Amino acid sequence: MKDESIPQPPQGRWGVLLLAHGAPDQLEDIPEFLRNVREGRPLPEPAVKEIVRRYSLIGGGSPLLRLTTLQAEALAKLIAHPVYVGMRNWKPFIPEAVRRLSDDGVERVVAVCLAPQNSRTSIGLYRKYLADAVAKVRPGLVVDFVESWHDHPALIEAFRERAQAALLDAKNQIGGPIPVIFTAHSVPERTIADGDPYERQVRETAALVARATGLNEYRLAFQSQGMTAEKWIGPTVESQIDDLAQAGGKNVLLVPVGFVSDHVEILYDIDVLFRDYGKARGVSVRRSESLNASPKFVAALASLVSARIGIINDNL
Fold first, then answer.
1. Is 159 part of a structural domain of the chain?
2. Three-state SS for 10?
3. Do the beta carbons of residue 272 and residue 57 sit within 8 Å?
4. Where are the beta strands (DSSP E) in 195-273?
5. How far apart, in whole angstroms, are the C-alpha atoms of residue 65 and residue 24?
6. What proportion of the chain, given as a percentage, has pLDDT over 70?
7. Other Cβ atoms within 10 Å of 206 Cβ, number
8. Cis peptide bond upstream of 139, omega within 30
9. In terms of domains, do 78 and 187 share one?
10. Can you give the CATH number for the domain in which 259 is found?
């Protein structure tokens, strides 16, 4: 605790920066968006066409920016600090967000990646992009970067609420219990082999949500593997659906715990691809609703941010 008898250094004005992957708002944005994702490396034309096709099936663009903005606006109402949004691969880019908060007089910022589990393929890049932006746009900005928050009790409660509602709805429709598969984005196997904590943290999140929901049995699968020749971690969602179908299962509930908002990995990979895959094998695929701007999720963000600011202030 700080000694009130000793003059304290100025704390500066706090702000919060929510960081997200970014996504194209319309089909015309997709080629440039993909160049940003791949840091200028071209993607084969057939792959670009396939991604355009996927976005065309979910309305022609992603709702990610709209949902992230709603999260930021709701969070700002709960805390006494301004909240900004910065995207890694699309507008508003992270440097733009740093410029905005700097113009508003923010001197200290808590940066939260809207991906609760830490991987150097995601969180590591957010940290790098943010550090580069600060160096170029606002040298001296003090950044408290949240490395991961996969086991935060309030986040687990937000996931539990969505999972519980989906389980109840499924039970009412099919008249009994339903198998659950927790899902998260896959990463290359070499990433985990190099000591990345991502897979372990995903498993911890799933176990905590299962316990909070009262599930004694569940499966975990990794989805949205990249269009590359290298191996990505599994098991895949498709393989888990195959197992259930072979055992005579007719229904399954997917509970995404590696994502907090609707975007193409939810709206296409789950709502189109996996549902069609299950249907072809006689399995009806359902999913829990994404957290999006749910009050419990926004409260989780508020709890996380407020604690970080409080801890740092206490240590001044």
1. yes
2. coil
3. yes
4. 219-223, 251-256
5. 9
6. 95
7. 25
8. no
9. no
10. 3.40.50.1400
Cα 252 to chain centroid, rounded: 22
pLDDT tens-digit map of 263-295: 999 999 999 999 999 999 999 999 999 999 999
Place of tokens 């792959």: 47
Q: How far apart are the C-alpha atoms of 274 and 283, rounded to whole Å?
A: 10
**pTM of the shown model:** 0.93
Q: Where in the sequence is the domain holding 28, given as residue range(s)?
A: 14-150+294-315
Cα angle 295-200-205, degrees, rounded to a multiple of 5: 20
Q: Give Dmax (Cα) for the chain.
A: 72
| Band of pLDDT at residue 7, cut at 50, 70 and 90 | very low
Assess if residue 2 is contained within a domain. no
Tell me the CB-side half-sphere exposure of residue 154, using CA atoms within 13 A. 15
On average, the pLDDT of the chain sits at: 94
Give the tens place of pLDDT for each residue, 99-141: 999 999 999 999 999 999 999 988 999 999 999 999 999 999 9
Tokens 């997709």, residue? 30
Could you tell me the CA-to-CA distances from 56 to 34, 185, 281 in Å, in that order? 15, 21, 25
Structural domain includes residue 257: yes
Q: Which amino acid is at 290?
A: S
Q: d(Cα 162, Cα 141) in Å, to the nearest integer? A: 37
Q: What is the pLDDT of residues 50-91, one digit of tens each?
A: 999 999 999 999 999 999 999 999 999 999 899 999 999 999
Q: Under DSSP, is residue 170 helix (H, G, I), strand (E, B) or coil?
A: helix
Instruction: Tell me: do 221 and 121 sit in the same domain.
Output: no
